[in-house]
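user: can you give me the structure for this one chain? C-alpha coordinates are fine.
assistant: on it. calling the predictor now.
[tool input]
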Amino acid sequence: MMEDTEPCYVISVAAKMIGVHAQTLRYYERVGLIDPHRSKGNIRFYSVRDIEKLKRIKALMNDLGVNLAGVEVVIRMAERMAEMERSMREMEQYLQRMRGSTSQEKVEPFQGETPRRGKKSIKETVSSTESAEETIRNS
Protein backbone atom coordinates (compact mmCIF):
# COMPACT_ATOMS: atom_id res chain seq x y z
CA MET A 1 0.00 0.00 0.00
CA MET A 2 1.26 3.45 -0.93
CA GLU A 3 1.97 5.94 1.87
CA ASP A 4 0.23 9.30 1.69
CA THR A 5 3.61 11.05 1.74
CA GLU A 6 4.98 9.20 -1.29
CA PRO A 7 5.37 11.61 -4.23
CA CYS A 8 3.47 10.21 -7.20
CA TYR A 9 1.63 12.94 -9.15
CA VAL A 10 3.30 15.29 -11.64
CA ILE A 11 2.20 18.91 -11.61
CA SER A 12 -0.27 18.62 -14.50
CA VAL A 13 -2.10 15.71 -12.86
CA ALA A 14 -2.08 17.41 -9.45
CA ALA A 15 -3.47 20.61 -10.99
CA LYS A 16 -6.32 18.69 -12.66
CA MET A 17 -7.13 16.85 -9.43
CA ILE A 18 -7.45 20.14 -7.57
CA GLY A 19 -9.04 22.13 -10.36
CA VAL A 20 -6.39 24.83 -10.78
CA HIS A 21 -3.74 25.69 -13.35
CA ALA A 22 -0.24 24.27 -12.99
CA GLN A 23 1.01 27.88 -12.71
CA THR A 24 -1.10 28.27 -9.57
CA LEU A 25 0.70 25.32 -7.98
CA ARG A 26 4.05 26.84 -8.95
CA TYR A 27 2.97 30.10 -7.30
CA TYR A 28 1.85 28.31 -4.11
CA GLU A 29 5.28 26.69 -4.01
CA ARG A 30 7.03 30.02 -4.57
CA VAL A 31 5.18 31.65 -1.64
CA GLY A 32 5.89 28.64 0.60
CA LEU A 33 2.42 27.12 0.96
CA ILE A 34 3.49 23.78 -0.49
CA ASP A 35 6.81 22.01 -0.95
CA PRO A 36 6.53 19.20 -3.51
CA HIS A 37 9.21 16.57 -3.89
CA ARG A 38 11.69 17.18 -6.73
CA SER A 39 13.14 14.43 -8.87
CA LYS A 40 16.77 14.38 -10.00
CA GLY A 41 15.55 16.03 -13.19
CA ASN A 42 13.91 18.79 -11.05
CA ILE A 43 10.38 17.61 -11.87
CA ARG A 44 7.78 18.34 -9.19
CA PHE A 45 5.97 15.35 -7.70
CA TYR A 46 3.03 15.74 -5.33
CA SER A 47 1.96 13.22 -2.70
CA VAL A 48 -1.57 12.41 -1.57
CA ARG A 49 -0.90 14.56 1.52
CA ASP A 50 0.19 17.46 -0.74
CA ILE A 51 -3.03 17.08 -2.75
CA GLU A 52 -5.13 17.14 0.43
CA LYS A 53 -3.32 20.27 1.63
CA LEU A 54 -3.84 21.96 -1.73
CA LYS A 55 -7.55 21.12 -1.60
CA ARG A 56 -7.74 22.76 1.85
CA ILE A 57 -5.97 25.84 0.49
CA LYS A 58 -8.39 26.05 -2.42
CA ALA A 59 -11.39 25.60 -0.11
CA LEU A 60 -10.16 28.34 2.25
CA MET A 61 -9.77 30.73 -0.66
CA ASN A 62 -12.88 29.85 -2.70
CA ASP A 63 -15.40 28.86 -0.04
CA LEU A 64 -14.38 31.15 2.81
CA GLY A 65 -12.84 34.05 0.89
CA VAL A 66 -9.50 33.89 2.73
CA ASN A 67 -6.59 35.55 0.92
CA LEU A 68 -3.17 33.89 0.52
CA ALA A 69 -1.70 35.61 3.58
CA GLY A 70 -4.65 34.39 5.63
CA VAL A 71 -4.33 30.89 4.19
CA GLU A 72 -0.70 30.80 5.24
CA VAL A 73 -1.58 31.85 8.80
CA VAL A 74 -4.38 29.26 9.01
CA ILE A 75 -2.16 26.48 7.64
CA ARG A 76 0.75 27.33 9.98
CA MET A 77 -1.56 27.51 13.00
CA ALA A 78 -3.15 24.16 12.10
CA GLU A 79 0.30 22.58 11.76
CA ARG A 80 1.36 24.05 15.11
CA MET A 81 -1.83 22.77 16.76
CA ALA A 82 -1.15 19.27 15.40
CA GLU A 83 2.39 19.42 16.84
CA MET A 84 1.03 20.52 20.20
CA GLU A 85 -1.56 17.72 20.20
CA ARG A 86 1.20 15.17 19.47
CA SER A 87 3.26 16.57 22.31
CA MET A 88 0.28 16.43 24.68
CA ARG A 89 -0.34 12.77 23.77
CA GLU A 90 3.31 11.98 24.49
CA MET A 91 3.08 13.76 27.84
CA GLU A 92 -0.13 11.86 28.71
CA GLN A 93 1.55 8.57 27.88
CA TYR A 94 4.52 9.54 30.04
CA LEU A 95 2.23 10.43 32.94
CA GLN A 96 0.40 7.12 32.58
CA ARG A 97 3.74 5.28 32.71
CA MET A 98 4.70 7.30 35.81
CA ARG A 99 1.42 6.48 37.56
CA GLY A 100 1.65 2.81 36.64
CA SER A 101 5.26 2.31 37.69
CA THR A 102 6.30 1.08 41.10
CA SER A 103 8.85 2.94 43.14
CA GLN A 104 11.51 0.40 42.09
CA GLU A 105 10.94 0.82 38.34
CA LYS A 106 12.83 3.47 36.47
CA VAL A 107 10.78 5.52 34.00
CA GLU A 108 12.59 7.44 31.29
CA PRO A 109 12.14 11.20 31.67
CA PHE A 110 9.81 12.92 29.23
CA GLN A 111 11.75 14.23 26.27
CA GLY A 112 8.90 15.77 24.31
CA GLU A 113 9.20 17.43 20.96
CA THR A 114 11.38 20.46 20.67
CA PRO A 115 10.40 23.15 18.15
CA ARG A 116 11.95 22.54 14.76
CA ARG A 117 14.45 25.01 13.43
CA GLY A 118 13.07 27.60 11.08
CA LYS A 119 9.56 27.39 12.51
CA LYS A 120 8.09 30.62 13.77
CA SER A 121 6.19 30.78 17.01
CA ILE A 122 2.56 31.85 16.82
CA LYS A 123 3.57 35.21 18.31
CA GLU A 124 6.17 35.70 15.56
CA THR A 125 3.68 34.63 12.89
CA VAL A 126 1.04 37.06 14.14
CA SER A 127 3.64 39.82 14.38
CA SER A 128 4.90 39.23 10.83
CA THR A 129 1.30 39.07 9.57
CA GLU A 130 0.48 42.36 11.29
CA SER A 131 3.55 44.02 9.78
CA ALA A 132 2.60 42.66 6.33
CA GLU A 133 -0.91 44.05 6.74
CA GLU A 134 0.53 47.42 7.79
CA THR A 135 2.75 47.45 4.68
CA ILE A 136 -0.24 46.70 2.47
CA ARG A 137 -2.30 49.47 4.10
CA ASN A 138 0.52 51.96 3.59
CA SER A 139 1.00 51.03 -0.07
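assistant: here you go. The helical segments are 11-18, 22-30, 48-64, 68-100, 122-138. The two ends are 51 Å apart (CA to CA).
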